[in-house]
Amino acid sequence: MSTKLPAITEKQKAYAFSKCFDNYAVRSRNTLFCLECGHSWKDASVLSSTLLGCSCPKCGNNLKMYNNYSAYNKVNEYFAIISTVSDMQVVRMFFVTKKLKKNNERSFDIDEVMQHWITPSGKVTTMSKKIMGLSNCYDQWIFDTILEVRQGSSESCQRYNLNPYKIWPDRKILPVIKRNGFKGQFYGNTPHGLFALILRDKIAETLLKTGQVDILKRYNSLTFEKYWPSVKICIRNGYIIKDASMWCDHIDLLKYFGKDLRNAKFVCPVNLQSDHQHLIEKKRIIRQREKLEEQKKEIAKAEKKFRKEKGMYLDIRFTDGIIDVMVLDSVNEFLKEGDELHHCVYSNEYYSKKDSLILSARKSGKRLETIEVSLKKMDVVQSRGLLNKSTEYHDQIIGLVKRNISLIQSVAV
Prior knowledge:
Aminopeptidase; six-stranded mixed beta sheet; five-stranded mixed beta sheet; 13 helices
């Protein structure tokens, strides 16, 4: 049947050449070169042409500036012709090349490199030319080979999922594909991918017919089953899902909270973003409580060991009349200190460090800095305030602690 397909016409080639590419110019010093017709002229405004492009005085084309120019340049795109043979839908893929060189008129090449054949049941068979086996590119075509059915599928071979940049506007579509909801738009899908999907999958067909195109874009028959009952409620109520990712996350949250996923009140929200954010915040609070419960269990385990190792220091406190310094006397205090000052005194388990004594400097009850004293060297290791930064009282705090090191030493003895 492939031999029955007509050769690409000159009109189709001209359409591909004009629609698949921008028009370009390149600058060399203060001279602009039109890469469309080969004309060159002096650049009157370098800044303007760089930012806005320019127009060729000779051919009149609006030109973009071409970056990374070398002696020979090529720009490639894919162009498709959609046709039928007998009861088969065919998507013909053409590799289009535009060649650019200074002082020369641009030239084009076009080669048919793939054909996707789709049966009325949705089975796809792909014919393609050979590619260079040792190339890093998955579409490095060997153009003098013939189109043949080759090993691989759209799931295992990336080039079989190439999407054309432009499609010939005169399309021939099987009546069964039109019956299954196709009205000319592909919604980001490859043409052969969408045709096959709506022919073999009734859910995809329904999504297309009912305008649920954002869901269709993300449709995956392996994971979609859990959302389908809720989608049917949306369809029944004329509710169009405009943000499929957020809506699916919203359904997952509704399920988490035990809501009725067949109730239009929940699955067809008037303001999806607002309702979704409300559930996110609600779940965050629950998770925070759960985390707190887990932390309480961890704290209870760590508290016994902490009191055994540091119990003799827990009543130490001293002041200079402005700053009050006290030992953090429980693991829970480490948690509060870390949460309020946003540092790692709790998360990095300073309460379990045998050689460290952790104190808190405060002014009028407000936490200022957390001080680590080495019990081995009897010296201040560090003192950290909010977000690990020093406060205006930093030097005063360090001095106060150092003047009272002897108090810590006396307890240790």
